Structure formats: C-alpha cells, structure tokens
# Entry
Amino acid sequence: MAKKINAVLGISIIVIFLVHILYEIVAYLTFYYNPAVTKIIAYTALVAVVLHILLSVYIVAFVHDKGKGMKYPALNARTLIQRITAVLMTVLVIFHMNTFMLLSMNAKTNMPAFVLVLAVQIIFYASVLLHVAVSAGNALITLGMVTSGKTRKKIDIVVWIICAILFAAASVIIVKTQVAMFLGQGGAS
# Structure
C-alpha cells in the first residue's frame, strides 16, 4: 500500500513539476513573472516532495529493502540512479529556492560564484529530470497502469525525450535570461 501511495505522490509531483518548469520557461521567455504563481506551484510541489521523501525513506528502511541496502546493485541501476538523484535533489532544493538571491548577490562582484550558482542550478535541473526519467515508468508499473515490458520501454523513451527537451530548454532559456538580467545584454563588463 505504501508503494502505491508513493507512486501516486510521484506522478502528482511530476505533473506539478511540469507545470512549474513550463511556467518558468514561459516566464523567462516572455519576461512576465508572477511570484505568486511561482510560489503556489513551488510550495505545492515542495509539500508533495516532502511527503514523497518521507514515504520513500519508510519504504527503503522498512518495506522494500528492510534497511539492508540493495542486494543486486548491478541489476538495479535505475534504483541506484533514483536514490542518488533523490539525495542530490534534496541537498540542492534549498539552493534552488534561493537561486535568484544568490545570483543577485554575486552578479558583477564575484564572477566565479555567479558562474557556480548557474552551474549548480543546471545540476539541479539534471538531477530532477533524471529522477523523473527513471521513476515515471516505475510508478506506472506500481499502479498497475503498465503491465508489459514493451509498453514500459515505449513510455521510458517518451519520458526520456521529454526530460531531455525540458533539461535543454530550462538550462538554456532560464540561464541565458538570468545572465542577461544580472549582467546585462552584453555580458560581464
């Protein structure tokens, strides 16, 4: 039961995340930003993510692995990637929530820190989208929505393509716009 609830949470987070990232991409493209919209979407996602993390830890510790770690890591590359990206996202989410402030603090005065903030932001996008790419199919299987390996492979391909496109779009559009906003159209002076 815990795995099914967690799968529903995971799919819900993916939907909320898609809304969040698509809104941010459009906001950066059009230079129209409504902080209330961003915060409502982001904090909704954050609550769901915290519940997902807590339930995931419970499942790993007491249900699935029973606190003994993965028995066959070579056979569970997806699970290993899931867990590594989950930890990475958890560590970087506070940073992500403060990116704008960190960029504004370092623009034009501390270029190495400014570039580091942009790089860590891209790493955060990569970890989120990689986590989604390896997790979506698992959630659908857990919920009984996918029952064949052939269907899973097709869904995996579609999800990976969507995640790759979103990663490229977010990395290029958001970072390019942030550089323009904080350093001006001509870059650093």
Remarks:
- The chain is about 80% helix and 0% strand.
- The mean pLDDT is 88.
- Helices lie at 2-30, 35-63, 77-97, 99-106, 111-142, 149-183.
